[in-house]
Amino acid sequence: MRTLITNAYVLDMVGDVPNIDKKDILINDNIIEKVDKDIDKSVEVDERINAKNMLVMPGLINTHTHLAMSIFRGYKTDKKLMDWLENAIFPVEDKLKPEDIYWNSYLSCLEMIKSGTTTCNDMYFGMNKTVEAIRDTGLRAVVAWCIKDDSIKDKVEQTREYAKIYNNDENGKIKIYVSADAPHTCNPDTIKLCVDLAKELNTGLHIHLAETIDEETKIKSRYNKRSTEYLNDLEVFDVPVVLAHGIYVSDSDIEILKKIKGGISHNPISNCKLSSGICDVVKLRKNGINIGLGTDGIGSTTTMDMFEEMKTAAYLQKVNTMEPSSISAYDILKMATIEGAKVLGMENEIGTLEPGKKADMIFIKTDKLHMCPANDVCANLVYSSNGADVESVMIDGKVIMQNRKMLNLDEKQVMRQVKKIAKRLL
Ligand SMILES: [Zn+2]
């Protein structure tokens, strides 16, 4: 099937400076065939999309999620991370049934699509139900079963089994990673086992790293090392990694992180809300480390809207450095697209709009009061827009949302289900 998009203002996210121009996009099945001014309109296609008044850009990439945590939106909020997890979240998580994980994940997926995210990177338990929700909603995703020290053999076996079933499923949209929860919640043997499993499955590892100062203190007192050093000594960086947070990293840690494959997922709203700290994104990027953006789970971030994350990421760096030019709107857009793709090792597939890439793109309505005038399109996208400005979403060449209506997906049904679960458990 061939699709021709015409009259779009295309922000292709290719290169070091913004490239915005009126162009057409020709798509063959799920692959971008051509992005060019005035593609011959007589070309034979099955579908034509007129993108007048729309800015078309690559779909956003959310590099750190716990999709099934949507049920915890606003639940026992205003606590520090470990207090919140141990006293509010873990007791309820123990009662989650597989069907609950499906519906909670489904809600997060719909919320992501409606705010312009086309790919996410998830870690949680009950991963098979999360994969089902991802499959049913049409997203592209990397999914991992979050392994801690308890029942480790079962979880390793489950990851192995689900990798066999789901890796490269859905036309290659679903990829399976291995996940160890965090240096302070996994003993060295657990982490080593996860690294071996990632090597065996020829995949990557998703892990939280240096999210709070308390974790760093724990690791220091247990092993007399910083957590980045600790992971390095366990040979974690032999495999591609997604390191969620990376707030407490020293100059010597940066020397280690410079060599990793993958990168860091920066979750600015979660870090603010839990008072965890500020990731020095400017310094890390200056050292050539890939930084993607992530929301974390809804309980700690409140929404899955990546536009909110972009805005917060920009403001945090400007305050942290006391220098407004330390990070530009285009830098932030790169983190939400092509740099996020690099963090997931998917830069050859997604993250820009250019021939040969997967047709994952979002259509943003620009003739709105809060985006007028468009003196600087990138600044408008980062500082003035929000997820509700995303009008249509295409993933893998298929339109999933059109004119803000989800095609074939029932928003009311999922809200009914999640409300029922919340009533039962919270
Ligand atoms: Zn997390």
Topology:
Layout: E1 2-11, E2 20-28, E3 31-36, E4 47-50, E5 54-58, E6 60-65, H1 81-93, H2 98-114, E7 117-124, H3 127-137, E8 140-147, H4 152-166, H5 169-172, E9 174-176, E10 178-180, H6 188-200, E11 205-209, H7 213-223, H8 227-233, E12 241-245, H9 251-257, E13 262-266, H10 268-273, H11 281-286, E14 291-293, H12 298-301, H13 306-321, H14 329-336, H15 338-343, E15 361-365, H16 377-384, E16 390-395, E17 398-402, E18 405-406, H17 411-425
Parallel strand pairs: 1-4, 1-5, 6-7, 7-8, 8-9, 8-10, 10-11, 11-12, 12-13, 13-14
Antiparallel strand pairs: 1-2, 2-3, 5-15, 15-16, 16-17, 17-18
Helix pairs in contact: 2-3, 2-17, 13-14, 13-16, 14-16
Bound molecules: zinc ion (ZN).
Zinc ion (ZN) binds at residues 64, 66, 208, 244, 296.
Describe this structure in words.
This protein has 426 residues and is an alpha/beta fold. It folds into two domains: 2-58 and 357-406, Urease, subunit C, domain 1 (Roll); 60-343, TIM Barrel. It has 17 helices and 18 strands. The protein has helices at 81-93, 98-114, 127-137, 152-166, 169-172, 188-200, 213-223, 227-233, 251-257, 268-273, 281-286, 298-301, 306-321, 329-336, 338-343, 377-384, 411-425; strands at residues 2-11, 20-28, 31-36, 47-50, 54-58, 60-65, 117-124, 140-147, 174-176, 178-180, 205-209, 241-245, 262-266, 291-293, 361-365, 390-395, 398-402, 405-406. The strands form two sheets. Strands 1, 2, 3, 4, 5, 15, 16, 17 and 18 form a nine-stranded mixed beta sheet that branches. Strands 6, 7, 8, 9, 10, 11, 12, 13 and 14 form a nine-stranded parallel beta sheet that branches. Strand 17 (398-402) and strand 18 (405-406) form a beta hairpin. The model has no long low-confidence stretch (mean pLDDT 97). The structure holds zinc ion. The site of zinc ion (ZN) has 5 residues, from loops.
